[in-house]
Amino acid sequence: MTASMELLDSHLAGLASALLPYRTEAGRLARWGDELARLLASGGRVLVAGNGGSAAEAQHLAAELVGKLRDDRAPLSAIALCAETSSLTAIGNDYGFDEVFARQVRAHGRPDDVLLLLSTSGRSANLVRAARAGRELGMRCWGLTGPTPNPLADACTEVLAVPCPDSQVVQELHLVSAHVLCGYVDAYLPVPFAPAGYVSTSPAVAQTVPTGSAPVRPSGVEPVRPSGVEPVRPSGVEPVRPSGVEPVRPSGVEDELVLRVPGTLRPGGHEEGP
To answer: What is the DSSP string of 155-180?
Structure first.
């Protein structure tokens, strides 16, 4: 066996040995996903942060929520504090590196929002301070860490601790956790936020609609319509338009009465210069 294969097999063996104990810890992700889906669907926000490789994973998680994991759905509010480079450098310069996340938490955090912090060691002082700041604001502080006990786990309200001494394996399973968590969020989202035709699997948000009844839709939420499909309108019936609202025209199509300033047209129909 070559040295390169020995290195690969050694790494895979460490990852494989961590999977069963990780699975026990990761059972909480379903509940976290349900809570996060309710929060984000009601206008709440999740703040995420980490250092180094964990910073990249925090950004990745936020991107899955603002963008999408698999199927299209409404964008969800998630901010990766470690991606705010100007804030990071300004706060670090003025207040010290230990405050780079805590000050942002105080700026963006709101009661009952979620603060999710990633650290393989659980000993990053800036994350511990962020967790304390979040709890002071009444946020739910969740941690993804390596083996416990560690200071970040103690500072958070809940923690998923990967029971493995290898920080590389811990980080890899944190990425798995991020994907699984986002998958649960999608599964538990209320119907108006999910893809067209999607039915939520969450007992808390699933609604029973009597046969022949129209589904209940929250005020201001429009139904999801597949791209390119126009609503069916009875023959001869024009759509109702609110008073004073003009129809939307394709980009680049001018309206003589709206887009051209009165008084700039000569009798001959040619525009004058300013």
So the answer is: HSSEEEE---S-HHHHHHHHHHHHHH
In a domain, 227, yes or no: no
Per-residue pLDDT of the chain (274 residues; tens, 9 = 90+): 577 799 999 999 999 999 999 999 999 999 999 999 999 999 999 999 999 999 999 999 999 999 999 999 999 999 999 999 999 999 999 999 999 999 999 999 999 999 999 999 999 999 999 999 999 999 999 999 999 999 999 999 999 999 999 999 999 999 999 999 999 999 999 877 766 555 555 554 444 333 344 444 444 445 444 445 454 444 554 545 555 545 444 444 343 333 233 344 444 444 444 4
Residue 149: asked if its preceding bond is cis (omega within 30°), the reply is yes
State the virtual CA torsion across 26, 32, 33, 36 in degrees, nearest 10. -160
Q: 16 lies in a domain?
A: no
Domains: count for the chain: 1
- Residue 60 in any domain: the answer is yes
Measured distance CA(217)–CA(196) in Å, rounded: 14
For residue 200, tell me if it sits in a domain.
Answer: no
Helices (H), 3-79: 3-25, 29-41, 53-66
Please provide the DSSP assignment of 68-88 as one string: -SSS------EEEGGG-HHHH
DSSP string, 225-239: --TTPPPP--TTPPP
Amino acid occupying residue 194: A
Domain hosting 73: range is 30-193
Residue whose C-alpha is closest to residue 184's, from 65, 267, 8:
65
157: CATH: 3.40.50.10490
